[in-house]
Amino acid sequence: MAEENKGALRARKQAICRKAQRRHSRFYERCAHWSFNRLAEVEPIQWHREHWMLAGTALLITLLSGFIMPAWANAMKPDPVPAAHIVLPLTLPALPPVPANTEPVMANWHSIRVEAGQTLSDIFQAQGLSLATLQQVLDASGKDDDALRRIHPGDEFAFQTDTQGNLLGMRFDRDDLHQVQLSFDGSKISKTVVARTTQQQQQIGHGVITSSLFGAANKAGMSDGMAIKLADVFKYDIDFIKDIRRGDSFTVIYNDVYRDGAYLHSGDIIAAQFYNGGHPYTAFRFKKPDGTYGYYDASGRTLQKALLRVPLKFTRISSRFGMRMDPVIHERHLHAGVDYAAPMGTPIHAAGNGVITAHHWVRGYGRYVRIKNTPSYSTYYGHMSRYAPGLHVGSHVAQGQVIGYVGESGWATGPHLHYGVLLHGKPVNPLTVTLPKPQPLAPKLLAQFHNSIMPRLARIKTINSNIKLAQATIAQNHQPDHD
Prior knowledge:
This protein has 483 residues and is α+β, with helices and mostly antiparallel strands. It contains nine helices and 22 strands.
């Protein structure tokens, strides 16, 4: 049966082939030598003369189309018509006459910041400027030269010089709100004082002391300068060398000062609370009728004492109040003060507000200053290396103002300050004497004070409550789960 099917299929194929050959007899006559059987030998295709002629003609047409025709088309383009231009007269203002030998001066400004240990002469020499130029600047600055003579790390100076290095201009800050600008025109120097504006941005700091006040302040985002101000506010109630202990905490509301959008320095403390050994101390800044500011606790008691027991940063007490053998004259007599040993040049501060009643050399004490602080109390300071400038008999000084510098003038065996207190003209022990109480706020001012501190006191309480709540939440989240 299978063989019959195969035979029928083969016959059908042969019939189809014969039918195709009849329909396309002419093709089969011309291409009868073609074969798709790879096993059979195939004769190669033969190219005749007419084939070569047709191929050559096609190649020539292709070349003409690709190269000759585009060149002919470009040649047949019409010449472009030139655009019409109209010239109109324009009257210009006459240029100012230029001097024959004038050359343009190329100048540039560059700013520097004072580094620790630098002096003004160091800065000028680093800019390639002579000491004679420095003297010209000091002379031209007039009453503003104090800002140049007392420079501090971080102060900024700007210099304008030409291509030869000659000074054309200089800028420096007299204070936060004024900038002094000097312009040089040959030997002539002109000065201009430009007013500047500052902005204050209120900040909040909270810290817990684990090792030091500075470490806790830095963790709270406060600068070292602000930490010093915090200690200065509470220095009358807290000894930050002996009394600080682990776990003490503080909350501070203060201002940072900005100028031209950039941080300038730390501002003032507006309100603060300090927990020392579990006891809270508060401080609020308040403007007094004379325009000055002071710090008071929540009850209106001033934090500032009338007199400081220690008017400088000292290293040790080298001699106390009482009878002793004098190390210089080798006689036994009353040592009527306290000697504080300190490095040469350490600033000495006025122990309280008052008026200078003596400012001269005294045998034994060397350079000597006495201040009448109250009708009953006076303080005096001896062995200074030099006086603070601008002070004389009759000068009013404020508590903490620098009045001189530690030295060893007079009868002294080393640099130190002899500090004495007189009560009704008689010497008393500065370390044990009952200090005068400061003047309290008047009743009218006390009412204003309470009204002004209410928002700040409420804010401090809110901050402390939020911190305690956050600490309790953290402690609760860290407790292990008990099934």
